[in-house]
Amino acid sequence: MSSMLALIQNENMKIFRRVPTWIMLGLLVVIIFTGAILQKVNSDDEQANANWKGDLQQQNAQYEQTIKDKDAPAFIVANSKKNLALNQYRLDHDLDPNVDGAWENVINNVAIINVVTLFTIIIAGGSVASEFSWGTIKLLLIRPVSRSKVLFAKYISTFTFALITLILLFGLSFAVGAIFFGTDTIGTPHLAYHDGKVIETSMFIHAIQVYGLACVGLLMMVTFAFMVGTIFRNSSLSIGLAIFLMFMGAQGTQVIALKFDWAKYILFANMDLTRYIDGVPLVEGMTMTFSVVMLVVYFVVFNGLTWMIFNKRDVAA
Question: Which residue(s) pair with 191 in the sheet?
Answer without folding.
Answer: 200
